[in-house]
Amino acid sequence: MSRMMTQSMMIAGALAIALSGYAQTSEPIPSDMMGTPGTVVGFVRDAACLLRNKNATVAKDEESRKCIIQCVRAGSPLAILTKSGELYTLLSAQLPDRDERRRLFPYAGRYVRATGRLFERGGTHAISIEKIEIVSGW
Questions:
Q1: What is the pLDDT of residues 67-106, one digit of tens each?
Q2: Would you put residue 109 in left (φ > 0), alpha (ψ -120 to 50) or beta?
């Protein structure tokens, strides 16, 4: 087999493995697991700093915004911080649950209004976003 053909097969195999997670079929979500319709207004940022640094809130300057973007690019989970201090993590609208980071990444360091299905358990909050838009702040 030629070297070029071997490399092509390796690339095709790697793509097949990478995309296999997307090939999973979604199951219908039972009605008792759909959450409650609602809207969250808040600031999209990495969750790590909020949990580690009790003084962390919204980005008040460009340096803070850069820090948020760096953490998100490095893989820190994204969340929406509300004015009252509640932290909403992300759920997808599918079972098995899918990664929603890519969808929220463009909003990192910005204020948003997210509408969708809300979930709460033991003080933990989550949202499955149906619509999201940038707002000027809270």
A1: 999 999 999 999 999 999 999 999 998 888 888 988 999 9
A2: left
Give the type of residue at 57. Answer: T
- How large is the greatest C-alpha to C-alpha distance in the chain, in angstroms? 63
User: What's the rounded Cα separation, in Å, for the pair 67 and 59?
Assistant: 9
Judge whether 40 lies within some domain: yes
What is the model's pTM?
0.76
Range of the domain at 39: 27-134
66: phi then psi, degrees, rounded to nearest 5 = -60, -40
Domain count, the chain: 1
Beta bridge partners of 131: 115
Tokens standing for residue 114: 């997210």
Q: What is the pLDDT at residue 98? A: 87
* Cα distance between residue 55 and residue 49, in whole Å: 9
